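Students often ask why we bother predicting the structure of a whole assembly rather than each chain alone. The short answer is interfaces. A chain on its own may look different once its partners are present, and contacts between molecules only exist in the joint model. In this exercise we take two input lines together and write out one structure for the complete complex. Read the inputs first and try to guess which parts will touch.
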Amino acid sequence: METRVNNSLSVAQPHTKAPQWLWPLMWGALLLGSVTVMSAAEPLFRWIEPDARQVIYERTELYVLLGRHLFVVGIAAVVTIIVGVAAGIAVTRRWGSDFLPLVAQLASLGQTFPPVAVLALAVPVLGFGTLPIIVALMLYGLLPIVRNTLAGLQGVEDDIKTAAHAMGMTPRQILRQVELPLAAPVILAGIRTSVTINIATAALGATVGASNLGDPIISGIVNGNMAYVAQGALTIALLALTIDSLFEVLQRQLRTCFSAS
Amino acid sequence: MTLMDALPTPRLRWEGRHPNIVLVSFSCIMLAAFWVFDVVSMAPNRIVLGTGHGALEAFGWPGALLVTLLLACIGILAWQPSHRHYRALLAAVVFIMALMPVGLMASSYLLIDPELPQARLGIGAAYWLVLFVLLLCLVELRLRLNLTRIWPTLLLCGVALVWWLCAAFGLGALALVQEFRARDQQFLSAVGQHIKLVSIAVSVSIVLGLALAMLMRRYARLQKGAFAVLNFLQTIPSLALFGLLLAPLAWLAANVPFLGQLGVSGIGTTPALIALIAYSLLPIVRNTYTALEQVSPDTLEAAKGMGMRAGQRFWQVRLPLALPVLLEGVRITTVQAVGLTAVAALIGAGGLGTFIFQGLGQAAMDMVLLGALPILMMALVVDAGLGALAEALRPGGTR
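Now the answer. The structure tokens for the assembled complex follow.
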């Protein structure tokens, strides 16, 4: 049993079918193409904005902005995943069960707090720059992960846990070898929601002085240059689609692992 | 005897009343926040960054002692919680919330120099933290006392009324109040515009979503494609979608005069509404479709056996049974639209987001708050209201 469950957690399976990777590879290639050779499309943008002095956003290279965007989203994602999953585990243990009703209630509030409002409230406390956007993303991304961790762990049937207990597994072993693997698809779905939303929300950071892919959009809106807006929007959309399709593949792999074992 | 009983299980620690750890730790957090962080900040005018003041400076000895006692009282009552104690705790939490503006009045009396008419009082980190934790306490107490959603909402409305009265009559020095007084007309019209945008977007997407869900039920082939498109739309960041709509709409307005006369333009309400509707469709369609599909075939069979016609079956059986889940979709959509409308301010659609982005541009944090707080409240009110409605409409016995 142990080996099987361990197997099911490993991501790279030898017998994966190639078409699964088609979408992420395609979106990823388009994304890389758009951040490196955007200037090649100058005639197109010239057509959108014939009167502008400059139609290619050149204040910062797009791939630098992409890197900063990924950095912010990545840090926020790592922290939220650790904290969110830990919180979900803690309140479903016996010693943390006092907090369960409250945390469940809060997690079900989910996306009630609008990201703009969260960001706007973070700025007075933390000042301008990259820090408030990271904090806002953490706060905002936490709830879907906690909600799905709770749903996943609570969805594990009591009979299974009893059986594991009867096999002589310690609570720690039950958590690591039974509960978490069974809850993994639901938790992963929560992480996917959280990260996808955060990629979009991070763009708003450009309004509080954090430099990322939102920059061309904001600068384009302010200067009335639609070509800038299109470049920023296109890149963010491609990034969101790449990451989302990556998660899609991960989820499908996880699912096939379970049905195979 | 079940299998679980046969196994050695650790015994529960305390039988009966054991301390409510949640409220006790909240009480400790609030006490720590109150004494560690700045309670208020004071700035001589709008531009200068305020200086922070701790509990003693803000409230003086008697005030700080009173607040400490009140906050400690929560922890003490929660140590041996009974039903009566929980009720007392609820009263205490509401009382402290209602007392918060009075504290601000006290500190504006203590700190603000009457010689400086421009001086303004900012709300400090401790204040926000205590308020936030008090709201958490309220949620916890609602769960422990098994109250329906409506009670805390009513209590909070009462508290809000007290705050409003205090702000109107005794808190002229508070920066938030000053920002509001400087642009009260603008604020009210922004709130109106925000509500208008949200309600138009949500009602249009309800109609479109219902129609689409019906079509999907009839033509199964449509289902997969439509969900794929809607999921795709949801992945595109809001800022990007707002931005991407600018160019084609501006082009349309310039080249098709008829549309231009109708008010279609690259910047303003039209692109905002289109983007809002595009985002709202997915949750509505998904929930409507699931809601209509999940009605048990047995019930429909019974309705058919009673001699109901297809139309009757739909309107009298399927729709009422699907209504709670359908409303859940409307709730999610509306809450999401409240937040997205704030982003729409960037493309000139107006609404409360205007204050947020103007405030961020001028580094005037109180103006940002003036935009963000009502949006947050609006989202919570919509969430609570529609949630309560869905709960009330749930057919009896299935709760």
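Check your guess against this: Chain A has one domain: 19-48+57-260.
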